């Protein structure tokens, strides 16, 4: 049985939480966000950077808006050590150079679906993080969390599930040395997973904001 690298994950992830102490402004995005919107960022913990590299994408973390009624939107996310809600400003503060993108379902949500989405997220809060990125685990990881919350509430599938083998085959330099170390010498090639990049590239969503494109304008 493959051992999940929880002890190593603790040291790699926990050092990245200090930035949460000082909230940053929500910026011009706050008033535009709706329940069900997906917020993509890039965090700098080493495993997440390797996820971005493996998927040929800048993003490596995603959360979903579950409340837009307060001073700023509330983001539900699966993060280390367990899934929780986070204010938009604190969520964005964790992103490298402030990079972020917002994706919205191409089909508008009904009031019933918005309530169902919040309920689906609430049901998963407090679930421990899966450092093995296994879609069949009892634990959660960010892209799986968002995908399942949206699907449960709307019957819309965002992103696609793939094995590690198919995920890495299109990458010219997937850094297999890191993944062998992460999985204690044996990469689980047939393990099924889903990635933030897959959600962002899904035909079921449209990108309504991209900080990198905005900066280039």
From TrEMBL:
Gene3D superfamilies: endopeptidase domain like (from Nostoc punctiforme)
Domain of life: Bacteria
InterPro entries: Papain-like_cys_pep_sf, Peptidase_C92
Pfam families assigned: Peptidase_C92
Transmembrane region(s): none
Coiled coil ranges: none
Name under which the protein is recorded: Permuted papain-like amidase enzyme, YaeF/YiiX, C92 family
Organism, scientific name: Pseudomonas frederiksbergensis
Taxon lineage: Bacteria, Pseudomonadati, Pseudomonadota, Gammaproteobacteria, Pseudomonadales
């Amino acid at each position: 049985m493959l051992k999940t690298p929880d002890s190593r994950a603790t040291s790699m992830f926990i050092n990245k939480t200090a930035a949460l102490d000082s909230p940053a402004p929500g910026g011009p995005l706050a008033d535009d966000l709706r329940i069900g919107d997906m917020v993509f960022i890039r965090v700098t913990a080493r495993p997440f950077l390797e996820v971005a590299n493996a998927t040929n994408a800048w993003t490596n973390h995603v959360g979903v808006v579950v409340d837009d009624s307060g001073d700023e939107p509330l983001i539900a996310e699966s993060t280390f050590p367990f899934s929780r809600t986070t204010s938009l400003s604190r969520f964005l503060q964790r992103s490298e150079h402030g990079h972020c993108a917002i994706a919205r379902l191409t089909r508008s949500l009904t009031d019933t679906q918005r309530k169902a989405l919040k309920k689906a997220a609430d049901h998963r809060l407090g679930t421990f993080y899966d450092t093995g990125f296994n879609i069949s685990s009892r634990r959660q990881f960010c892209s799986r969390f968002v995908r399942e919350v949206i699907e449960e509430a709307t019957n819309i599938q965002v992103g696609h599930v793939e094995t590690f083998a198919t995920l890495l085959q299109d990458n010219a330099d997937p850094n297999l040395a890191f993944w062998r170390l992460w999985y204690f010498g044996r990469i689980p090639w047939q393990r099924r997973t889903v990635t933030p990049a897959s959600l962002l590239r899904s035909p079921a969503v449209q990108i309504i904001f991209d900080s990198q494109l905005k900066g280039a304008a």
